[in-house]
Amino acid sequence: MKPTVGYLGPEGTFTHEAACQMFSDQAVHMMPYPTIPDVLSAVDRGECTHGVIPVENAIEGAVNLTLDWLIHQVDVPIVGELVHPITQCLLVHPAQIDGPKEAWSRIISHPQAVAQCQLHLRHHYPQAQVEFANSTAEAAEKVSRHPDEAWIAIGTRQAAKRYGLHILAADVQDFQNNYTRFIAVGAPLPERRIPPGQWKTSLCVTLASDFPGALHQVLATFAWRKINLTKIESRPTKTGLGNYYFIIDAEMEREHVLLKGAIAEIEAFGCQVRVLGSYPCYRSQSVQSLSR
Ligand SMILES: O=C(O)C(=O)Cc1ccccc1
């Protein structure tokens, strides 16, 4: 049976682009879901073999919904990562393009997309009210259903094509080098033709309570083994103010003797360690050619 890949849809999201790249070597069935929790739940209950969701953006930072669902709500391993470039476009209904600039009354998009363009929007469309959508393509689809409204969706070039919209402006994010890290969760990924750039293991560490310097000791455990950490993020445990999980990405395979030793040592001084996944990391084809 063909693998089924759930992704944050509908068709034409950045996540859709990332999912197509991640599974480009393989015949798969792509299945859009309206929200990140819907993707993760579908994988958790076995409706999909894999799921693809955003986890971090270079401008806006962590996608907290993804982290919180991975920690609290589901038990699905991270099995791969793709870094994908983000080009934000302003998409409008073709019936509206002749109006004055001041007439645009509403800007609709995913909160991450709005945040990535906030300076541009304040400067060019201060009069427009902002409406959040579950995804950029959901916003594009909504604009396409309202030809009589002077609304702008922020989204992909693909969404413009798919929903018959006009691109009013492209590359409107406030900073260049706008990339998002997407993760695949679920069953192990089949080997790809391109070799991965690196291998990472994501850990969720709960510190021992009443242990001054516990975080310092956790970090020292990695440091003296020369294990490179690519990210550390804290998220509330949701049990009370001041209680955190630390999500730590280490640039090493889970089975490596040094990482196994580090995890054992951290556990030995009273912290809990949950391995969220150990996985190959890829860059989008277009990113590879940009960075050459
Ligand atoms: O809404 C989308 O298109 C997504 O895939 C989520 C997202 C939004 C903005 C930047 C990266 C990912």
TrEMBL record:
Gene Ontology BP annotations: L-phenylalanine biosynthetic process
ACT domain mapped to chain residues: 203-280
Site note Essential for prephenate dehydratase activity, residues: 180
Catalytic activity as recorded in UniProt: prephenate + H(+) = 3-phenylpyruvate + CO2 + H2O
Keyword annotations of the record: Amino-acid biosynthesis, Aromatic amino acid biosynthesis, Lyase, Phenylalanine biosynthesis
Pfam families tied to this protein: ACT, PDT
Gene name for this UniProt entry: pheA
Protein source organism: Polycladomyces abyssicola
Name of the protein in its database record: Prephenate dehydratase
